[in-house]
Design brief:
about 130 residues; mainly alpha; elongated
C-alpha cells in the first residue's frame, strides 16, 4: 500500500507542477489579465497559490498515509479540474487575448490529469477499506 501512496503523492506533485508552468507571462500563458480588478485578480491568485501550497502539503500527507489524505486529495483534484474547465469554457478569467493552441492543449492535459488523480485516489480509498 505504501508504494501506491507514493505514486499518489507523485501524481499530486505532477499536478501542481503542471499548474505552475502556466504562470501568466510565462512561455505558455501569454494572455493579458490587466482588465481584472484588484480584488478579483488578487483573490484568484491567492486561490491558486493556496491550491499549490495545499498540494505540496497533501503530497506529504499521502507519503505518511495520513487518514484524511485521500479525502483531501479528492478535493484538490476537483479544484484543479474546476480551474481548467472554467478557463477552457471562457468563464473565468476573461482576457481580451485569445488562448493560444499550446495553452488550450496544456489545459486539456492538465484537466485530464486532475480527473486521473481523482480516479486514482478514489480507487486507493476503495482498496484501503
Amino acid at each position: 500500500m505504501q508504494d501506491i501512496m507514493i505514486i499518489a503523492s507523485l501524481l499530486v506533485f505532477f499536478n501542481v507542477m503542471l499548474l505552475a508552468i502556466l504562470v501568466p507571462g510565462g512561455p505558455i500563458e501569454n494572455r493579458d489579465f490587466s482588465k481584472l480588478k484588484g480584488v478579483v485578480f488578487w483573490g484568484f491568485n491567492l486561490f491558486l497559490i493556496l491550491l499549490g501550497v495545499m498540494s505540496f502539503i497533501t503530497c506529504y500527507l499521502l507519503l505518511i498515509a495520513h487518514p484524511n489524505a485521500i479525502f483531501i486529495t479528492k478535493i484538490i483534484a476537483v479544484l484543479y479540474f474546476i480551474v481548467y474547465i472554467i478557463d477552457l469554457a471562457g468563464i473565468f478569467p476573461k482576457s481580451p487575448t485569445k488562448m493560444s493552441k499550446p495553452l488550450i492543449l496544456f489545459e486539456i492535459i492538465n484537466g485530464s490529469m486532475a480527473v486521473f488523480l481523482f480516479l486514482f485516489v478514489t480507487a486507493i480509498g476503495h482498496i484501503g477499506s
